[in-house]
Amino acid sequence: MRRTTHLALGLLAIVATGDAVARAPELTDGQIRRTIIQESVAAYLATGHPCACPYNSARNGSNCGARSAYSRPGGAAPICYPSDVTDGMVLDWKRKR
């Protein structure tokens, strides 16, 4: 009898855990856009260059502004603003998660 009770409780715990995971809140599109921006900027900064976006700071503490990779044509193109993130990018991000 005890084995059956423990088995039933164990199965209940597994099912309850699965339900909790299934009900984990999904990120909003706005949160996903911010995450995509953070990932893009982090990838650029990991190359050792400080000026991914105009709002980043250069090594001397000044604003990157027009010196940023975002502002210069050609080369790297980091994603800096929510308007840069397309709906397709959001869908791709959701599919990968």
Describe this entry's structure for a reader:
The protein has 97 residues and is mostly helical. It has one domain (27-96). The protein has helices at residues 2-22, 29-45, 87-96. Helix 2 (29-45) packs across helix 3.
Number of domains: 1
Q: In whole angstroms, how far apart are the ends?
A: 42 Å
Oligomeric state of the chains in view: single chain
Arithmetic mean pLDDT = 82
Number of helices: 3
Major beta sheet, specifics? Answer: none
Q: Could you say which overall geometry the principal axes of the C-alpha atoms support?
A: elongated
β-strand amount: under 5%
Structural class: mainly alpha
Tally of strands: 0
Question: Helix amount, in percent?
Answer: 40-55%
H-E string: HHH
Poorly predicted runs:
1-17
Radius of gyration: 22 Å
Descriptive keywords:
single chain; 97 residues; mainly alpha; 49% helix; elongated; disordered N terminus
Summarize the structure in short.
This protein has 97 residues and is mainly alpha-helical. 49% of the residues lie in helices and 0% in strands.
Summarize the topology.
Blueprint: H1 2-22, H2 29-45, H3 87-96
Helix pairs in contact: 2-3
